[in-house]
Design goal:
Order of helices and strands: HHHHHHHHHHHHH
CATH topology of the largest domain: Endonuclease Iii, domain 2
Number of domains: 2
Structural class: mainly alpha
Radius of gyration: 24 Å
CATH class of the largest domain: Mainly Alpha
Number of helices: 13
Strand content: under 5%
Number of strands: 0
Length: about 300
């Protein structure tokens, strides 16, 4: 008797592609994010005096170099390194021509000097090859995406550094997201947990009107430094607890919070000079000499 033919194996079901949020869900998230941003701007603006961009504090190349020095180091140290660099080198040509180990010694107070000295000279070499006169004013008039892409094409320059240059030198509506802004946005619920940094830039820029970008950046940084601190925020001083996702967890006993320091007023905390230079608060009149022409470094 012939053996029965083997049954054909059932065809495997095609794996379902994981779908992202629906268009309706994305639209609802955008509306919620926008409504929350409006509240944040209103309340933090009242606390921090509604900051407005009042023009560049440095030429573009200086802003670029200062921002590189500010990467992964304390403000006071990066500003010390920037000041030492300006004293040592007459202009950008002299800095570019200097031995790398000399530049490394000059900026050592800023930390990570071996990496930053090479990065600064690599960036300056690229800038000089494209613009012999060191004039990067085209970044203020080029389409925003093109200006940002040009900056991020430079070695070691990412989205945050490019955004700092465009916002602080030209007042362009591009949102630098540093650790303070990311923390504040995450706790408020403006960005989801584990949001990649580039995505955080996109979400926040998408929630802001162009004329709101500078104010939100400055207010969120100040709030992150003085109230919404890491690792424990001082929620007792925050004007946003009624709209804050993190504070919901605080009330449930699931998130840590710091007590209010006696006599502490975050709005009255004086800004440091490096903050003023990097984040747009007007420096003392005596320090106006730091604003130099595009190719000159030395003090007046």
């Amino acid at each position: 008797m012939a053996e029965p033919a083997p049954r054909p194996k059932p065809a495997k079901r095609a794996a379902r592609k994981r779908r992202g949020p629906s268009p309706q869900k994305l639209a609802a998230d955008r509306r919620r994010r926008r409504a929350l941003v409006e509240i944040v701007l209103e309340r933090l603006g009242e606390r921090y005096d509604h900051p407005t961009w009042s023009g560049p504090r440095l030429d573009v190349v200086s802003e670029l170099v200062l921002t590189i020095l500010a990467q992964n180091t304390a403000d006071v140290n990066s500003f010390r390194a920037f000041s030492a660099l300006r004293r040592r080198f007459l202009d950008w040509d002299a800095l570019l021509a200097a031995p790398t180990d000399e530049l490394e010694d000059v900026i050592r107070p800023g930390g990570l000097a071996p990496t930053k000295s090479r990065r600064i000279q690599h960036v300056l070499a690229e800038v000089h090859a494209a613009h012999l006169d060191w004039d990067l004013s085209f970044l203020g008039v080029a389409p925003l995406d093109e200006a940002r892409d040009w900056l991020t094409s430079l070695p070691g320059i990412g989205r945050k550094t490019a955004s700092i240059v465009l916002l602080f030198c030209f007042g362009r509506p591009t949102m630098p997201v540093d650790t303070h802004i990311y923390r504040v946005a995450l706790r408020l619920g403006l960005i989801p947990p584990r949001t990649p940094l580039d995505r955080a830039h996109d979400l926040l820029e998408g929630a802001l009107l162009p004329e709101e970008t500078y104010a939100f950046h400055v207010e969120a940084i100040r709030h992150g430094r003085h109230t919404c601190r890491a690792p424990r925020p001082i929620c007792g001083l925050c004007p946003l607890t009624d709209v804050c996702a993190y504070y919901v967890q605080v009330q449930r006993g699931r998130a840590p919070v710091a007590p209010v320091p006696k006599g502490y007023d975050p709005a009255a905390t004086p800004s440091r000079y490096h903050d003023e230079l990097l984040h747009g608060w007007a420096p003392p009149q005596a320090e106006r000499r730091l604003v130099e022409s595009p190719s000159t470094l030395g003090p007046k």
